[in-house]
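Inverse folding, one chain.
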């Protein structure tokens, strides 16, 4: 009789490997990492990406015929990001700086209001805060229309 253990390949027992569960865990962990990274990165990128930069001395002038109903038109006036919207044939201009902590808001043509990507403040079409942490309206900016061209009034965007 042979008392020595059999070490041949035939005697080895393969452990069942649950490759489906392992693969699921890998995908779940990878997906969670991607979603977490995007959640952190989006507000940072949105904050850093200003809509349009013309320089600190640029004067914003917009031919009124270029303004489309319901859409926001961004420009820079003396270093300030200004958004002009036309709603029901009424033109309004705002400083695009969120009144919470200073991120640039976005005009949402679907809802007809402003949204801030940083902490999700929402403002109505008059710039009044309606949701989120901001409790001060967006600053209205005065303008004139001369010969079909909208012109922001002064360096601070104030009349
Ligand atoms: S900076 Fe806009 S909600 Fe905070």
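Residues assigned per position:
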């Amino acid at each position: 009789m042979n008392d020595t253990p059999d070490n041949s390949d035939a005697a080895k027992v393969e452990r069942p490997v649950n490759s489906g569960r392992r693969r699921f865990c890998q995908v779940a962990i990878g997906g969670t990492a991607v979603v977490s990274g995007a959640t952190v990165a989006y507000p940072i990128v949105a904050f850093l990406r200003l809509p349009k930069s013309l320089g600190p001395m640029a004067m914003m002038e917009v031919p009124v015929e270029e303004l489309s109903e319901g859409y926001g038109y961004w420009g820079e006036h003396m270093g300030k990001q200004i958004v002009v919207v036309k709603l029901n044939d009424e033109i309004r201009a705002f400083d695009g700086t969120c009144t919470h902590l200073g991120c640039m808001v976005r005009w949402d043509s679907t809802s007809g209001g402003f949204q801030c990507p940083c902490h999700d403040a929402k403002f109505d079409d008059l710039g009044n805060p309606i949701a989120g942490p901001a409790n001060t309206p967006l600053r209205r900016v005065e303008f004139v229309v001369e010969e079909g061209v909208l012109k922001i009034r002064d360096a601070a965007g104030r009349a």
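Residues 7-48 form one domain. Residues 98, 100-103, 116, 118-119, 121, 132-134 surround FE2/S2 (inorganic) cluster (CB under 6 Å).
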